[in-house]
Amino acid sequence: MAHILVVDDEKSICELLEITFRKEGHRVEVATSGEAARRRLESQIFDIVISDIRMPDTGGVDLLQFAKEMAPTAVFILITGVPTIETAIAAINSGADRYVIKDHELVDQLRRAVQQVSENLKWQKEAGYLRRELRRLTGLDNIIGRSPKMRAIFDLIQTVAPQSSRVLITGESGTGKELVARAIHENSARAQTPFITINCGAFPETLLESELFGYLKGAFTGANENRQGLFQAAHGGTLFMDEIGNMSPTMQVKLYRVLQEGKVRPLGSTEEADVDVRVIAATNKDLEKEIAEGRFREDLYYRLSVIPIHLPPLRERREDIPLLARSFLERFRKAMEKPIEGIEPEAMRRLEAYDWPGNVRELENTMERSVALESGRNISLAVLPDKVTSYDSGQAAAKAGRDGAVAFPDAGLDFEMVIGETERRYILAALERSGGVQRRAAELLKMSYHSFRHYAKKHRIQ
Ligand SMILES: Nc1ncnc2c1ncn2[C@@H]1O[C@H](COP(=O)(O)OP(=O)(O)OP(=O)(O)O)[C@@H](O)[C@H]1O
Ligand SMILES: [Mg+2]
């Protein structure tokens, strides 16, 4: 059975279709404006979207483009009251799967279309899955994002990938540095060659050296046989050096020399070997600051950072949150075989408002946990962690900064919620200050007892 979204500004059509498809056992949701449809598409996973072509606030064709982005696997059926060749062509060109005219056969036609689609659904889902897997292996499809910042990064990846230039990826923990490094490798001429990763922060100095450059038998106690280093193992391919900012000064010198000369010398050997390796380095440190404070070599920095890519923290690209949350939901509900279809609007609002210090990784873990805990059809507030539900975006706004500036996220903010949070915090603070005496708290806030009661009630403060 399919999960269907019906979009039409005519309520009667929505009701008619809702009743029809419910009767046939499908799950149906309706939206009577383009805006409402967008909100549904952001938070729910649909199999079929049936949409009117003409609505006061958005055209169905625009909506379809948005929907294709949000739900690339859904089937789209456009309906129209005024059939013209032009609208039909526009519909098909914009990727609609079917096109149905609103006449006395509308219901029958749609019923047949939906029936066919749901029979094919299983097959289509598999095909879609395979298609996506294929793209995942070759392209950028597993890096999710539609914010301008991420789009710029997609462009950059596509431009730099084919060349063999070194790339330095910076960004806070969990922003997707390793994902980007892999995408660069997979889009390069080296895609069929090894992609080897090493976490430079995880090894003590001498061990890191032998890992990277290898050693000959007898080079040091415990070197019982020859061992090839990662530079040689990655010959012809890509070496991803993670946490480069944690490398010791001595190792920095050694690495600089290898990058400069394109040769490595295994420990205990007198001979150097040529290596052709594309190095992609990553760090969550601010390397320019490390340089200024004498912890990172400037010459090495310029060797590594031929092309710098900075991944912005998630809180600076909140538009990506719904898309990421839904895609993690889709992954985990499949893995855990749970019948969860979406995220409740209030829960989504909280996800979008939270600061995500652990970035995408934290969101991924949060969604995994939420899918595991949720017993209903939608991820609800109840299963979100406290840190997310009690996150005070009012506090973030009030923290604001100097000179009357307010914290204003790129993606905008929920004004009502920010103001509401601020009210709630001051009411609570006043109560604390007054030892729980409400009249005194009202005085401290320079408001009437009556107003105080109003706010306390509004925020359910006892
Ligand atoms: N844009 C994205 N789309 C989908 N998944 C993402 C995205 N960014 C990050 N992830 C996921 O978040 C997790 C963390 O990403 P990744 O390991 O690449 O981060 P990182 O920047 O290397 O973090 P760290 O500095 O902690 O090593 C991974 O599971 C990754 O798949
Ligand atoms: Mg990493």
Can you walk through the features of this model?
This protein is of the alpha/beta class and about 450 residues long. It folds into four domains: about 5-135, Rossmann fold; about 150-310, Rossmann fold (3-Layer(aba) Sandwich), CATH 3.40.50; about 315-390, Helicase, Ruva Protein, domain 3 (Orthogonal Bundle); about 395-460, Orthogonal Bundle (Arc Repressor Mutant, subunit A). About 50% of the residues lie in helices and about 15% in strands. The chain has helices at about 10-25, 35-45, 60-70, 85-95, 105-140, 150-160, 175-185, 205-215, 230-235, 250-260, 285-290, 300-305, 320-335, 345-355, 360-375, 385-390, 395-400, 415-435, 440-445, 450-460, and strands at about 5, 25-30, 50, 75-80, 100, 165-170, 195-200, 215, 225-230, 240, 265, 275, 280-285, 305-310, 340-345, 380. The chain has a five-stranded parallel sheet with strand order 2-1-3-4-5, sandwiched between helices. Strands 7-10-13-6-14 form a five-stranded parallel sheet. A two-stranded antiparallel sheet has the order 8-9. α2 (about 35-45) packs parallel to α3 and α18 crosses α19. It starts with a strand and ends with a helix. Magnesium ion binds near residues 177, 178 and 242. Adenosine-5'-triphosphate binds near residues 173, 324, 361 and 364.
Low-confidence stretches: none
Order of the strands making up the biggest sheet: 2-1-3-4-5
Helicity, as a percent range? 40-55%
Tell me which ligands are bound. adenosine-5'-triphosphate, magnesium ion
The structural domain count equals 4
Shape, please? globular
Radius of gyration: 28 Å
Beta-strand content bin? 5-15%
How does the helix and strand content classify structurally?
alpha/beta
Mean pLDDT: 87
* Count of DSSP-assigned helices: 20
What is the CATH architecture assignment of the largest domain? 3-Layer(aba) Sandwich
The first-level CATH class of the largest domain is given as: Alpha Beta
